[in-house]
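2024-03-11 09:14:02 INFO queue: dequeued item Centromere protein L, len=360
2024-03-11 09:14:02 INFO validating residues
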Amino acid sequence: MERHHNSVTKTPLDRVQRRSKSKSYRQSLRSCLGATCLTPALTTRRLNISRRAPKSHNITKVNPEQLALMVKTEWQLSYVTPLYQFRHTQLKSYSRQLSAFIAAEKQQGLAVEVEGSHGSFRVSFSVVQGMSEAADDAETVLIQIHLKRLFSRQDEPAKVVWSGLLTCINGSPDYLRSLPKDFTCLPLLCSSGAEGLTSAVKSWFQQTFDCYFGQLEISHTSLQWMIALWTNCQTESAIQFLKMIWTLPVVPPLKVTYTVNGQDAWELWSSVRKDPQKEGNGEDEDENSIDIEEVMRFMQGLKSHFYRHFRLDLSAGKLDQVSTALGSAKCSGMIKISNSKYMISTLTLLTECALLKMPI
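2024-03-11 09:14:37 INFO prediction written
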């Protein structure tokens, strides 16, 4: 069952010593993480309660083909622990190694059977120039798996059947600087393609760089942050609409689709923003930051308006998905960025979410 609503009124709203690559270390680390073993330092980490408001980035240094891939693809998110002895200068070698690994897996019947996969796989690693925002961020790496089909024409190009991005955008300086020099932190993996190929890539990385991958879900709070961050972009790039999908805990579970006109969402968001004069903060500081209190007031306004019309309390439910013209995100860890101007802001939040999973 779905209920739709298409407008909202303006609502006044009251590490660590150097580690070896020993087998025992890998097993103990993966065992710990697989059992959700948390150190005291991990349990004290939380999402930032304040962050910079998103601003438009004209990413002119990024290769246009790479940029087009990033904004047209729906990505599955994973987190990855720091990579031991990963070198950006060795990407050609990694391409050959991973190609050989996938070929061996396929020969043993372990690799994925991509539709029409009778042919040879070739892997390419490349640096995505122009993505790094902070001095401590490692350069983003794009991995692509190409399939050259048997009996294809000699001039027929290989088809890209899997893509992955390893990235770190505005990562925590304290955490990144705490890592020994032999570790590279690219905590966020965005992948698109057959699950079997994703598993093969992860297996090779784990064996080669002594790391661990885990599924990165997008929490209820992080989805609410995305709602606020994207709505805040309305004046520069119209979000057109704000769509939320909730699940209410009834039997059977009730799916509720709640759609708000973009301008109406902006007016409500403007009404809950702090007044720099009343708060006694500098105007520039206030305009360039958003705090969790504003996000919560915005969400409460949206939920209150829905309750007045439908007598359904969304506070009792779970936010599963959000979308605007700028992008979409699902709690299962799926993300699509539709506007490159705000890609950096979105990846900054997702990098933060991934770093919360790091063992220290």
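2024-03-11 09:14:37 INFO annotate: The radius of gyration is 22 Å.
2024-03-11 09:14:38 INFO item closed
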